[in-house]
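Entry for the shared binder. Reason: the reviewer on the internal report wants the predicted structure included alongside the sequence.
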Amino acid sequence: MELESQVAKIQLGPEDASASGFTYVLAERLGQGDSESFMVAEILEASGDLRASSEQIVLSIRGAVRRAFKKSQDPENFESAVAQANEELGKLASLGQTHWIEKLNCVISVKIQNNLHIATTGKVAAYLMRDNELTDVSCSAPKPHPLKTFENFASGKLKLGDVLVFSTSQLFNHLSIDKLKRLLSQDNFLRASGQVVELLKESAAGGVNFGSIFAQQLKKGTILEEAEIDLEEYVESAKPSSPGLLANTKRFVMSMVAPGKKISPQMRPSLSASRTERVKSGFMAIGGKTKRLLSALVKGASYGKKNLSPSQIRQFSPEKKFFFFSAAVLAFAVILLTSTAVYKKGQRQKEERILASLAQAQKYLSDADAALLYKDEPSAKEFYVKSLETLGSLKNLSKDQTAKADELKTQANEIKTRLERTVEVSTENLGTLAQGDTLIKLPEYLAVQSGPIVSFEKSTGTVRDDAIKISGTVALSQYISKNKAAVYDGVNLKLWDFASGTTGAGLESSVPAKENAAGMAYYPTNQRVYMVDKAKNQVVNFAVLNDQLGRALVSANLKNNDGKNARDLAIDGSLYILTAEAIKKYHSGSPDEFSPAFLTPLNDPKKISTKTDFSNIYILDAGNRRIVVLSKKGSVIMTLTSPDFTDLKDFEVDEKNKTIFILNGSSLLKVTMP
């Protein structure tokens, strides 16, 4: 995001400037580009005849910067500008102008796109304010040599919302760091700058030459012309406005209704009041004015009712009748104007709140973007979520505000895509199997049972309905070794020789009922088949013994109804239980820390897959039409999406060959992972 600076220049001093040192403040564009130059300089004890010489010295530094950037905006030009400034100062010293040596305090800085380059000499205040913290960015040498006045320079990247503070050293003699941070943290940068001017005027009392520049970084093109401070002027606090038409009208009417009563004006909240206090004071002032006006009108109406009957009005002279009806019309106009003013005031405050929220959301997104650049994903996620919360709180937006909010939502989606590492993949349709929710996953075949087993043969790429046979139903299955697989038919758990189509003796004891069975996984290290028993909130396992399975053993008593909410499980030495909303990890029978932060929450996840020799964990998230790939520490590796992911049911992952086979409805899709 390209940034531009909203600049406030402050230069204060005694009326008799010739009796003190020389101070110079500058902010300007460089050449024909968008680069910006800032300079704050002072030469101590430069009174009387030395002021002209001091001005020449400062202008020579300015000229060196201008010449360096006259033809191009190359960042390397700043080093050339510093070298030229040193050369100019050296020439002046050789010509006998030495009064500035060890008395020059100066900061020169150039902003090129979003990069800031700065060089300082002597005692100056050069700070970067970011996230309400001030960081010293000055780089002055302890005792500069006349031939190398600017000995060091530094560079860094600016972020949206950063505020640069360049000043002569007296700034913090008259204003505390905490006070300055509080002022510059306000939403209205221009008002904050005005408050700083007022405080400095009051504190310094005109006895010190003083110069400062405040530069706030905003998105390029967002500074309104009427709100922008010209780079050649400095901020002055706003003077109280004279009474308007409404105030004069009110005074006139009330003087007629209640003659002799003194009308005291409402005090305006001070510039230094907090935003909350100003809003509160504004509402109280409007309420007080409206209440007094209505009270006066009620009294006037009561007086008229008692003393001004129609017969009396008819007896008025033409002049009195004209005055009476004019006053009545004027009173009605005052009520209308007051109501309109109150309404418009409320609308303005509402608009200010909305604009402040939009600016805050934009800041959160900029912070999220910066955090991603530094690979700080937790912070990026936090800023992203805050931006969504801020945007979600906005109601009843105008057309322009809606457009701005939509633009920020688009930026938020871009941040989300980067956080989730979303990749749209192409798919290959391998053929149509059969209607079913579960893949039978074998080394050479992927199949679905719907009556006969319809299978896809990997080696030939053909779909057949006679390659694999079994007597009974396959609700869940898990490949064991060679021609052997474990199958669950909804009642019994047994071993199946898929080459011959025969099955061993069924095991029913302690096997979960069909409605309570969630997932099946085989762990080759201990040659056991694992299943979730939702009714008992447990994971149970069965040893593979030649042609049958051993009795059930409890692997883990699950916590917090993790088993009751289970959809599937996977094992790699640890158990991973997939629920409707999360993944719960257990190690050695106990819960283990594992909490991947999904930006898009899981929605009807179907399957989870990992193995001992897998690097990652894979989740088939059907409701979001995606496959999420996590590291085994829980961070998002990538998120795979495709327009063809319309009815995700099951999948098989071949991590070694970077291939995923997906049962989508009755179709078998193949995806190659990036």
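Summary line for the report: The radius of gyration is 39 Å.
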